[in-house]
Amino acid sequence: MNFIPADRYIADLMAEFDYAMDSQKASARTEPSRRSILKFGVAGAGLMLAFQLPTDAKAAPAAKGSKEFAPNVYVRVAPDGAIVIVSKGPEIGQGLKTAFPMIIAEELDANWDDIKVEQAMINQKLYGTQGAGGSTSIPLNWDLLRKAGATARAMLVSAAAQQWKVPASECVTDASVVTHTPTKRTLKYGELANLAATQPIPDEKTLKLKPRAEYKLIGTRKGGVDNVKVVTGEPLFGIDVVLPDMVYAAYEKCPATGGKAVSFNEAQIKAMPGIKDAFIVDGNGIVTEVMSGVAIIADSTWNAFKAKNALRVVWDESTASKDSWTGSRAKAHELLKKTPEKFPEKNGDVDATLKTAAKVVESSYEYAFVSHQPLEPQNCTAWFRGDEIEMWAPTQQPTRGQLAVAKMLGLPEEKVLVHQTRCGGGFGRRLMDDYMSEVAAIATRVKGPVKLTWTREDDFKHDFLRAGGFHQMTAGLDANGKLIAWRNHNVTYTADNKAPVAGSMRAGEFPVLLMANAENGQTMMPLVVPCGPWRAPGSNVTAFANQSFFHELSVAAGRDHVEFLLEVLGERRHLAPQTSGALNTGRAADVIKAAAERIGWGKAQPKGRGLGLAFFFCHAGHFAAAADVSVDANKRITIHKVAVVGDIGPIVNMSGSEAQCQGAVTDAVSTMMDLKIGFENGRVRESNLHEYPIVRMDKAPMNIEVHFIQSENSPTGVGEPALPPIAPAFANAIFAATGERVRQMPFSAQGFSI
Amino acid sequence: MVKLTVNGVERALDNVDPSTPLLWVLRDTLGLVGTKFGCGIAQCGACTVHLDGQPARACSVPVGSIGTQAVTTIEGLGTESKLHALQQAWIDHDVPQCGYCQAGQLMSAAALLKDKPAPTDADIDTAMAGNLCRCGTYIRIRQAIHSVAKGGVA
Ligand code: FES
Ligand code: FES
What we know:
The complex is a heterodimer.
Chain A: H1 7-21, H2 31-39, H3 43-46, H4 55-58, E1 69-72, E2 75-77, E3 83-87, H5 96-108, E4 115-119, H6 124-127, H7 137-164, E5 171-174, E6 177-180, E7 185-188, H8 189-196, H9 227-232, E8 247-253, E9 260-264, H10 266-270, E10 275-281, E11 293-298, H11 301-310, E12 313-316, H12 325-336, E13 342-347, H13 350-356, E14 359-367, E15 379-384, E16 389-393, H14 398-409, E17 416-420, H15 434-443, E18 449-453, H16 456-461, E19 469-477, E20 483-494, E21 518-526, H17 539-557, H18 561-569, H19 585-599, E22 609-618, E23 621-631, E24 637-647, H20 654-674, E25 679-680, E26 683-684, E27 704-708, H21 726-738, E28 744-745
Parallel strand pairs in A: 3-4, 8-18, 14-28, 16-17, 20-21, 24-27
Antiparallel strand pairs in A: 1-2, 2-3, 5-6, 6-7, 8-11, 9-12, 10-11, 13-21, 14-19, 15-16, 15-18, 19-20, 22-23, 23-24, 25-26
Helix pairs in contact in A: 1-2, 5-7, 7-8, 14-15, 17-21, 18-19
Chain B: E1 2-6, E2 9-13, H1 22-29, E3 48-51, E4 54-57, E5 70-72, H2 74-77, H3 85-92, H4 102-115, H5 121-128, H6 138-149
Parallel strand pairs in B: 1-5
Antiparallel strand pairs in B: 1-2, 3-4, 3-5
Helix pairs in contact in B: 3-6, 4-5
One FE2/S2 (inorganic) cluster sits between chains B (96-102, 133-135, 137) and A (93, 375, 425).
């Protein structure tokens, strides 16, 4: 291989996410995470982000002569009462653009209807790293955003106190109004804007944040702030960007990763209607940035696509991927039976314990590769002006994209001006910024702005796939049916022969940390096809093997599944109290019991109908799911109900959080039932949505009950952790209904359908 | 030259090849970017518009084949100051997640309600099955459609 695979980039990213979950244990942070944060240059801002505003962010950015009150980069109050709240991170459908302003507005005591939300430009000095992934947005920014709001509120109060010549302690706030309690005098925030701007910024330590009981906004249901624009079709998304004299680009890369463009039918392409230029881009050989290909510049997207279809490219594939899914699957089945290459986690002596077991249960599970396919195809718009470049990017990682483009073009970071647009879905695909780097490379050869749009076929050919994988599970039960030994051997892939690809079993996976004799083994097979994080990476597949096997064990032990799970969890304890990133067995037990109750656990079911349950902990979220299904003689599944119970602490936006869980269930059902990606000779087999049946309304689960246990823990993210327990809950329900164990995803491989 | 009536306005288009899909004429030529590109092969429904009131996938309709049929896009369904009842219902039920599919969903739903003002769940599922929502907003879409059929917020 003479190019740089995605894995180093992704490893850095995942380390940053893990770090975010550990932000409460600043003193005990692990070295690799710390290094990766430092490398991305946010030591100054990022490390403190959870606790205080970056220094630069305190400087009021209001222009000279402006009458606005702008105590920090997140809040501006105009004399007419309009309040602008700046949302720092990308909106990918996870609801951040509504939830972040709700947090600020809560502490500001603003009237929600007065607020206009503005999307921040990308600027590390002002905002730290801007990105969305790993369900880290809420835990990372919770304190920061509350303080941003509370700071503004304190200054408005001190302005009012000054105007009335009364002590600030006699003033209260509500709905964008300050009231002097003893005299009932009131001043609106807008009326105070001028005077507030002259108040000193209060010391952070003097800020009083609201106790949860006083929340008026947090925990309520608020509709998405862009909803009106979405439903009227106003431009919002990256693909909607139109600039004066803009041209349109398409980009063709080698279908096997690593292939290089040698030549193409240039004369023919350039003679096609609307074509302005066509050229080979060598790229920088970094899979997450620019790989070699042919760029086409046209006067419309359609003309660019037509020419792209007519391209005949000669590729040098000497170092390109030759990977085969069928080949690697056969190999994996051999490796599964062998001793794991290594044991990333090992407690006690599993072999010796198995010898003492009354019953040893062995079982294997596997799952296919899948693709992300957010509905908005990858795209990005760039305008290169010699000494600077301006970009409009639908991405989950705008800061990383900005830095990559700056480095590639040899420009200082501040000369890469990045607007973040709304994203038509992320699911992890937009953690990689290849389209940003590609259009930047193309833009240097174009006069004026250029919009690059991928075809859906490009999105299939050049995704960062959720890796397939294989598990050999072995466990021992004692004479009382108690779990005494556990081994989970994961056969996965590696791009660099060192670390497993994203989406392999994650460290500390349940129940290894809870057992005296337990181990997680790993064997890796080389792979060039790029892999990446897919909604709840790792957990979204390993939970299927793990939690299906738990059910198998409870059946082998002749015990109730819920009771068996609760016994393994044991007494209520938090494995690492200083971090939200560690399992809390008490919270786990609570969600399991609540999910069981909501599905009617224990009730006798008619023939062909069954209940199934599963639990998983990831992204700091404790989630249990339960499914109620019927399966007919043709193995067709009817979904009666899905219940999801999560504990992620207090909920910020109830409407958005419920929607995330409904979406996670739908995504999980769709993927587990029918979706798979194959590849041969390095080429992805599926080409468009007709070969990749993402679920539609007629087959989607339409009865999903979502419940949150809003425990007194600091809030964590909701975009991912609801998904992993869904597939095993269904697999267990199918077993209960039919007696057949589902051992592979997609379930259609065993003849099941919905 | 191709002539087209879009949202009640007649447009004369020079330099447009009649084989160009309506989607790209709307988006790139007329600047009506509310109609979305998802798959290009009539599989996702993101590009759904109305031709004489019937839902059609704009990515797969050559602009030269439209003739005198009236084209209605999401921009013609309703505006911020005068929302279509379905658009209001979508807001009331907080339907959108990423929002990318929703213009197409709304156009399919509007065509359904014109045809069947009080659809059953099964009617809705059938009419909406051509519209993919990658984010999984189906439950709220169905609730929103029912609420309009019943004449208000459910
Ligand atoms: S873009 Fe037309 S149906 Fe997908
Ligand atoms: S809301 Fe994202 S695709 Fe439907």
